[in-house]
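FIELD: query
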Amino acid sequence: MDIKTASAICKALSDQNRLKIIELLSDGEKCACRLLEELNITQPTLSHHMKLLTDLELINCRKSGKWQHYSINTAVFDKFNDFICKLYKEI
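FIELD: result
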C-alpha cells in the first residue's frame, strides 16, 4: 500500500460515522437499512459515507433486488494493517 492510499484511508476513518459503519460491519454483512437503524443520519448521508468507503475499497457492496448489502473488505484492511505495522517497526 502506498502513502497516498494509506492517507486517504486514515482521512476516511477519522470520521465518526464512517468508523461506526466499519464497527457495525465488523460482525458481518449488513443491509443499508440496518445501518440506518443504528446511525443517527439520513439516507443521503449514509449513501455519501458508503460511496467514500466503497471507492477506497474498504467495504464491499452487493446488490440484492433493491437493497444494498455491505461488508468489510478484509484484504484492504490487511494491507492497511501491514502498512501501519511497517511504520511502527521503523520507529
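FIELD: remark
Residues 60 and 71 are 5 Å apart (CA to CA).
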